[in-house]
């Protein structure tokens, strides 16, 4: 009987509420990043006549989108590997767009 109870205790998973609470700080960070990116996008559209500021703000915006998608990757890489792979690819592509956008402006 003790062996059966021990085996059952080993197979228990954390409660769903605990898993959600673990993801809560990351989701709050992602929401904050989204809010900052909306402000940057509005500023970039407002400054679209000034090419230097526009390209720099869009590059920063792409970089922030990459960070947000990387955080989505970090929240999903254990349970949902397919979603995590997509989030990681999107993050890398946003970082690539950021570098490309800055290189177009600088050169």
How would you characterize the overall build of this protein?
The protein is flat, with a radius of gyration of 20 Å. The model has no long low-confidence stretch (mean pLDDT 72). The chain has one domain. The N and C termini lie far apart (73 Å). The protein contains four helices and no strands. The longest helix is centred in the first third of the chain and has 31 residues, at 16-46. With 107 residues, the protein is mainly α. 86% of the residues lie in helices and 0% in strands. Helix 2 runs antiparallel to helix 3 (51-76) and helix 3 (51-76) packs antiparallel against helix 4 (81-106). The relative contact order is 0.11.
Write a concise keyword list for the protein shown above.
107 residues, mainly alpha
Mean pLDDT: 72
Number of strands: 0
Q: What distance lies between the first and last C-alpha atoms, to the nearest angstrom?
A: 73 Å
The global form is flat
Q: Are there runs of 5+ residues with pLDDT below 50, and where?
A: none
- Work out the count of structural domains: 1
Report the structural category.
mainly alpha
- Radius of gyration, whole Å: 20 Å
Largest sheet: none
**Oligomer, anyone?**
single chain
Q: In percent, how helical is the residue content?
A: over 70%
